[in-house]
Amino acid sequence: MDKVMSLVYDRLKEMAHRYTLREGPDRTLNTTGLVHDAYLKILGQNSRDYENRSHFYAIVSTCMRRVILEVVRNRNAVKRGSGARKVPVQEHFLISESDADQILSVNGALEKLAEFDPKLAQITEYRYFGGMKNEEIAEALGCSLSTVKRDWRLAKMWLQAELGGL
Fold first, then answer.
1. Which region among 2-11, 21-30, 33-42 has the lowest average model confidence (pLDDT)?
2. What percentage of the chain's residues is helix, strand, coil (to nearest 5)?
3. Is the residue at 10 inside a domain?
4. What is the pLDDT of residues 53-78, one digit of tens each?
5. What is the pTM of this model?
6. Are residues 128 and 107 in contact, defined by beta-carbon separation less than 8 angstroms?
7. Of 166, 158, 163, which Cα lies nearest the Cα of 85?
8. In this structure, is residue 85 part of a structural domain?
9. Total structural domains within the chain
C-alpha cells in the first residue's frame, strides 16, 4: 500500500486540495491532513482489491467524504438548530466555517439519493468528494461516458430539487 500511495500521492493531494479548510491559522484539517486521514481509513479496510486506478480513486473519494463529514460534524456539534436554507448544487466546493451546513445538507441529500438510485449517488459522491472526472467515473463504474454524463445531469436536477437550490 505504501508503494501505491507514493505513486498516487500528488493526485490525492490535488483531490484533497478542493476541500481544504479555509479557516485561517486555527484550521483543523488541511490538504495533507485530509490525504493522510483518508489513507488511514483505506488502511483500516479489510479488502484492498482494486480493479483499476479509477476504482482506487472512487474508494479514496468515499474515504475523503467520511473524513470531511467527521470534521464537519465535530465542528457543528454545538451549532444545532440553525434552520434549513437553500443550497446551490455546484461541481465541487471548499470547506469553510460557513460551508459546514452545506456539506451536511449535501450529505443528507446524497443518502436519500442512494435510497432512490445508488448509482446516481455514487456518481455524485465521486464528483463532489473525489473530484473525479467523468471518464474516471465511467471506468470505476464500468459504464459509458455518455451514461455518466446523463446520470450526472439527472442527479444534479434531483439534488437541486431536494436542496431547494436554484
1. 21-30
2. 70, 0, 30
3. yes
4. 888 888 888 888 888 888 777 776 65
5. 0.56
6. no
7. 163
8. no
9. 1
Length in residues, the chain: 166
pLDDT in tens, 110-119: 899 899 899 9
Q: Is the residue at 152 inside a domain?
A: yes
The C-alpha cell that represents 9 in the structure block: 500521492
Dist CA 99 CA 86 (whole Å)? 12
- Per-residue HEC secondary structure of the chain comes to CHHHHHHHHHHHHHHHHCCCCCCHHHCCCCHHHHHHHHHHHHHCCCCCCCCCHHHHHHHHHHHHHHHHHHHHHHHHCCCCCCCCCCCCCCCCCCCCHHHHHHHHHHHHHHHHHHHHCHHHHHHHHHHHCCCCCHHHHHHHHCCCHHHHHHHHHHHHHHHHHHHCCC
| Angle at which helices 53-76 and 134-141 cross, to 10° | 110
